[in-house]
Amino acid sequence: MKQYDLVIIGSGVGLSILEVALHHGLNCAIIEKDSLGGTCLNRGCIPSKVLVYPADLVREAGHARKIGVSFPDPEIDWPKISRRMWSYISHNESIENSLSAADQVDLYRGTAQFTGPDTIWVPDEKHGRTEPFKGTRFVIAAGVRTFVPPISGLESAGYVTSETFFGSQFPKSPWKKLAIIGGGAIGLEFAHIFSAFGTEVTMIEKASHLAPLEEPAVSSLLETEFRHQGIRVMTQCTASAASLTDTGKRLMVKHEISGEEQAVDCDEIFVAAGVRSNADLLHVEKSGVQTDQRGYIITNTYLETNLPNVFALGDINGKFQFRHKANYEAEILVNNLFHSEREKKEVDYRSVPWAVFTSPQIAHVGLREDEVRAKGIPYKVAYNDYASIAKGYAMGYEEDDPDNGFTKLIVDENMKILGVHIVGPQAAILLQPFVYLMNAGLRCTQKTLKQITARQKRIRSIAGIFPPCSEAGTLEPIAQSMVIHPSLSELTAWAIEGLEWAE
Prior knowledge:
Elements: E1 2-9, H1 14-23, E2 28-32, H2 38-42, H3 45-63, H4 78-89, H5 91-101, E3 105-109, E4 113-114, E5 119-121, E6 123-124, E7 128-129, E8 133-140, E9 144-146, H6 154-157, H7 162-165, E10 177-181, H8 185-196, E11 200-205, H9 216-228, E12 232-235, E13 237-244, E14 249-255, E15 261-266, E16 268-271, E17 275-277, E18 310-312, H10 323-338, E19 353-356, E20 362-366, H11 369-374, E21 379-385, H12 390-394, E22 406-412, E23 417-423, H13 427-439, H14 446-451, H15 454-460, H16 476-479, H17 489-493
Parallel strand pairs: 1-2, 1-8, 2-3, 8-18, 10-11, 10-16, 11-12
Antiparallel strand pairs: 4-5, 5-8, 6-7, 9-17, 13-14, 14-15, 19-20, 20-23, 21-22, 22-23
Helix pairs in contact: 1-10, 3-4, 3-8
């Protein structure tokens, strides 16, 4: 039976682990059932933003009338937008070519299935079943898939998910009418995209608000703006049945409280009601790897499972399912797997940022106010809206405007940041500095203070000019921080990687 030093399941963030493993001379296998590059490249954050940005421009053009600038109605060149999107996704081909040509790595195409704690096999869709093989260590980065709720008639009526949208069900032109089941990040972004391109969009969300993970005031502003944009918002509602009609498809939607049912006619149904773990597809129960009640692989702060030879990261561990969080975990795991001479690192999820690239844009880090209150922490709250600043007014925002976004700060009694919530233009960029601040926890030790010379003490006593000790005021907080992907904040954060000594 063939034996590998390291077996990696999943070619999204798993590629980051593979690159370092090969650099260390390990004999590796990588297993992927879909296109190489994972969710982010093929059906997630990157291709969706290629569609989001043109939608942003449409909304900005409409908003420009408020400041005295008018444009003709936008013309949507869907084929060109589509070509740009597919050209980026096609990077997965170069990834596959590189892996096929690389030494010390075997690429298996198909769904990995454990047969024991250190054995696995892959039912290859093209070449049939592979022979089982062993791994000394395993890294599971197999991600998640769309959760499809049990709606009567949905399978026969047909539907689209984010997987099939960026695949066989990509539309030749924007639909005329679209029903979206789910008011989370994916649903919100696609509602923005297609409503801006002229589609009549209906959003169906079981919770009392869209964006249920956000502050209620953020969700309220978002819903108001969606309705202003012509999007039909149905909250506290569930789709109970689906069927085909002579002109398209129909969803029967039931209100959770009143019990009233309404028919929603559309050309297509987009299911974005959440995700489920792929761990069940891997037959992890045969390996002995433990999962939680939702089916996600349980990991500790070192990204270790209950088995000493198996590690997991990314969406499949169920913690903050964002690519930038997975990238952060990869850095931790690379240190712990390949640098035994270094101290083991632990993950810290207290300052995980995220953004929803809808209209208006939403960004969030830390706790909501209700979460702070539940913890019994004394806290302070501050708001500031776009219309209150000169730049906001210049952009066309006034106090009574329904789209006047805001920042909400939540701090404890010592001004420690507990949560930041932003809704409005460039929210992701505006949020990022707070992430850096939340990670800036460096402290001077007594030993360090004793090492500072008298001259250094004299210079560093000038308030606001020099930090009190060598650890403070460095780039370390930025280097240790997650950066929302994709956003312009990466332009500055990733510059650190290119630091060189000046000649």
